[in-house]
Design brief:
Blueprint: H1 8-12, H2 21-31, H3 43-54, E1 74-77, H4 84-90, E2 96-100, H5 103-113, E3 121-124, E4 138-144, H6 146-150, H7 158-170, E5 171-181, H8 185-194, E6 199-205, E7 219-225, E8 235-236, H9 247-268, E9 275-276, H10 277-281, E10 296-301, E11 311-317, E12 330-334, H11 342-345, H12 347-357, E13 361-366, H13 376-388, E14 403-405, E15 410-421, E16 425-434, E17 448-454, E18 461-469, H14 474-482, H15 487-499, E19 501-503, H16 511-519, H17 524-533, E20 537-542, H18 548-556, E21 560-566, H19 569-578, E22 587-591, H20 594-609, E23 618-622, H21 643-653, E24 658-664, H22 668-681, E25 684-689, E26 695-701, H23 712-722, H24 729-733, E27 736-738
Parallel strand pairs: 1-2, 1-4, 2-3, 4-5, 6-8, 9-10, 12-13, 12-14, 20-21, 20-23, 21-22, 23-24
Antiparallel strand pairs: 5-7, 6-7, 10-11, 11-13, 15-16, 16-17, 17-18, 18-19, 24-26, 25-26, 25-27
Helix pairs in contact: 8-9, 14-15, 17-23, 20-21
Domain Methyltransferase type: 78-179
Organism: Panicum virgatum
Biased composition (Basic and acidic residues): 468-480
């Protein structure tokens, strides 16, 4: 028997916090038993739209207990003391499960309906944690005010999001989530974003009689669970509701739907819209728990509420499934200085990184100015929980996710100078000791190298030289050992020890430079003839760097006459100051543009020979890095492989000689473009691809006049006889391939 409840003001005063279990228990206890309570939208207004949505399960008539085996499983979360469930039951829908976290109301409802509606189930349960229900348990979830109660203004979206995640989990594929709501902006905003991907969504206003229009309009939002990743615009019936609904509220909803549909149309149009981590979690690109070969998507990782920083990121699932994956998921951090490099900025380059990382899924994270001066440990700590949400498979069973970053393996670093020029930008000269570097230089315990780094290619070594002890400094060292042990003199000793090192110009730090030397086997006979006759072979090198290659070439092949062209005077200054670079009659430096130098040389040759062909062999080496790394061509700059310059290079070589290019490109299409252009200009083309390196050295010649192509073994032997420094020509030349 129903009890008489206290005044309404006293009862409503108990609900200061709609998310508090204790408050609801007190609310229902004060209301008493045996009485239903509706916050809004009563059965007469709901009957027609709900029965139309759920289907004719009560065909036998309301009050008939027979519903049939095909009746849908319906979940009513936060059921409270509403009469909605009993009305549906009486309409023929028997398989209804009601949950509420208030024991008081569940006990009351169970007593009220146990006999008359025996098939209806009741559970004391928090709707934000419905782990007692298996995935895909229900055909329909019918929420009447539950989400609204969780989404109090100012309370945030945490509980609402948690509840919707559970609702989506327990709903079957093709099932319907029906939300009866006042559609306040913060509630509607959550619904629109949470059901954006993979759900067919519609909205309508619940009819109210004109004489009984409520100040608060109720809306029925229906979400049908579909295929992950599919985006559909929202179907709205609100513009037809003016006669029976509060149009002030409806117009606000219509505007929100219009804005949302614009977003959805942009996603479904095929445009690579920038997604958020939450979008990915919601199924914007499909099931994240499954690795989909070749799947790639840019997105924003992190939000102000969930992380310290936000990051631009790319998710990449390896193109091929293989048993050789080392990691099921990995993170690759790209520093700001390298973000524009082709390897990281282009899709093709990113797939190269995935392959190298040996990860089934790689999340590439790009740092920018927001992350400047932030310790890497802090960034990794910030990223870790975000990445866990992107992990495929069962995270509990998988190995830890590794963080990867382009590193140089340096154990010890001593920066000698940092300099900046308008041409090259920031440059660093440093002495380094690598990890696991064995020392074999007398009293030096470990090998030490001097490096020139260009800031525009952070992480890449532009030039590297081996440091060795200068035997002429021994006497200076003895004097330093006998000096007084004051702090000042100890500092002088240290300085003297540093000054006792010099560059070993018989060492080539770059393997591609060794390949250039080995490739000279192609013209070994001409080099040998020039050496025997005392003549010099004209050799032009575009690009000085630290000067290590031309210094090696001068000492290794005395028969070559070298002219180096360098655009940046500061580069030449650093080469002289720190790398022992020096000029003489055999080795000269020209400061200026390399392309113009070749053009001027061609013009000078024509003037000197009056248009007749030159009988002297010439060698032209292009060893210049590019300042524009976005093109996919790291070396050389693109204008060095365009037709105008290639034809000038051919003219410079006249009837023979060798045109050599150090080509660095991770893009197969860019590489093929360069090779195609060279084939169109030069009659002969050879390639020497370095193992485990991205450098490829190309050798081109306008004719076979000076080429030793019939007996390469004999040519290798001739070159070895000429070389003054050791070079493993035999090993290199085995990799030489004829392209044309």
């Amino acid at each position: 028997m129903a009890t008489t409840p206290p005044p309404a003001s006293e009862i409503l005063g108990t609900l200061g916090d709609f998310t508090s279990r204790e408050n609801w228990d007190k609310f229902f206890a004060l209301r008493g038993t045996g009485d239903s309570f509706e916050w809004y939208a009563e059965w007469p207004n709901l009957r027609a739209p709900l029965l139309a949505l759920l289907g004719d399960r009560g065909a036998a008539g309301e009050g008939d207990a027979g519903a049939g085996a095909a009746a849908p499983e319906i979940l009513v979360p936060a059921c409270g003391s509403s009469a909605l469930s009993e009305r549906l039951y009486d309409a023929g829908f028997r398989r209804i499960t009601n949950v509420d976290f208030s024991r008081v109301v569940v006990a009351d409802m169970l007593r009220r309906h146990a006999r008359a509606r025996s098939e209806m189930r009741w559970r004391v349960m928090d709707m934000t944690d419905m782990q007692q229900f298996a995935d895909g348990s229900f055909d329909v979830i019918l929420d009447k005010g539950g989400l609204d109660a969780l989404m109090e203004p100012g309370a945030g979206t945490k509980l609402g999001t948690k509840y919707l995640n559970e609702a989506k989990r327990v709903l079957k594929s093709g099932g319907k989530f029906v939300c009866l709501t006042l559609a306040e902006s913060h509630v509607l905003g959550l619904l629109l974003s949470e059901f954006r991907f993979g759900w067919d969504m519609s909205i309508q206003a619940i009819v109210s009689e004109s004489s009984k229009k409520s100040a608060f309009q109720t809306f029925m939002v229906v979400m049908v669970k579909g295929k992950m990743g599919v985006v559909q615009t929202i179907k709205s019936l609100l513009d037809q509701s003016a006669e029976y609904c509060n149009m002030k509220q409806a117009n606000a909803v219509i505007r929100a739907l219009g804005n949302e549909n614009i977003i959805r149309e942009s996603y479904s149009s095929g445009v690579d819209a920038l997604l958020s981590l939450r979008d990915l979690q919601l199924g914007a690109i499909g099931d994240l728990k499954v690795v989909v070969p070749g799947r790639r998507r840019q997105f924003i990782l992190g939000e102000p509420e969930t992380s310290l920083y936000c990051y631009k990121a790319v998710l990449l699932d390896a193109k091929k499934k293989t048993e050789t994956f080392v990691y099921h998921c990995g993170v690759f951090i790209v520093p700001k200085a390298r973000a524009q490099e082709w390897l990281f900025a282009s899709e093709e380059g990113q797939w190269h990184v995935v392959e190298s990382a040996k990860a089934a899924r790689l999340v590439m994270v790009f740092l920018d100015s927001r992350h400047a001066n932030i310790a890497m440990d802090i960034i990794k700590k910030d990223l870790s929980p975000l990445i866990k949400d992107l992990e495929p498979g069962n995270p509990e069973e998988e190995a830890p996710i590794p963080f990867m970053m382009a590193g140089d393996g340096v154990k010890q670093r001593d920066v000698l100078e940092e300099a900046t020029s308008e041409i090259t930008g920031r440059m660093v000269v440093e002495d380094v000791v690598y990890e696991n570097a064995d020392g074999d230089q007398g009293s030096m315990p470990e090998k030490m190298f001097r490096r020139l780094m260009f800031g525009r290619s952070s992480g890449l070594v532009q030039s590297e030289a081996l440091l060795i002890r200068d035997p002429h400094s021994d006497e200076t060292d003895k004097k330093n050992k006998n000096a007084s042990a004051t702090s000042k003199k100890r500092r002088n000793q240290k300085k003297g020890s540093k000054n006792s090192l010099r560059i070993d110009h018989s060492f080539l730090g770059s393997s591609y430079h060794s390949s250039i030397i080995s490739g000279l086997s192609l013209v070994a006979s001409s080099l040998s003839a020039a050496s025997a006759s005392g003549k010099k072979v004209s050799t032009t090198v575009i690009g000085l760097g630290a000067g290590c290659f031309p210094m090696f070439l001068r000492g290794c092949l005395p028969s070559v006459d070298i002219e180096v062209v360098e655009l940046d005077p500061l580069v030449a200054e650093l080469a002289k100051k720190y790398f022992g670079f020096s000029v003489d009659e055999q080795l000269k430096v020209h400061l200026g543009d390399g392309i113009k130098f070749v053009e001027d040389s061609v013009a000078a040759n024509h003037s000197a020979s009056n248009g007749s062909a030159s009988n002297a062999i010439k060698i032209l080496v292009i060893d210049v890095d590019s300042s524009d790394l976005s093109s996919g061509l790291s070396c050389p700059p693109e204008n060095f492989v365009e037709d105008p310059f290639l034809h000038k290079a051919k003219e410079l070589l006249s009837e023979g000689g060798l045109f050599i290019i150090n080509l660095v490109s991770r893009s197969s299409s860019v590489r093929e473009m360069v090779v195609s252009r060279l084939k169109a200009v030069f009659e002969h083309l050879y390639s020497l691809q370095l193992e485990e390196d991205i450098n490829e050295v190309l050798f081109a010649s306008p004719s076979e006049r000076y080429l030793d192509i019939n007996n390469i073994d004999a040519a290798v032997a001739k070159l070895n006889d000429l070389l003054k420094f050791p070079v493993d020509v035999e090993s290199d030349i085995k990799k030489l391939q004829r392209l044309q």
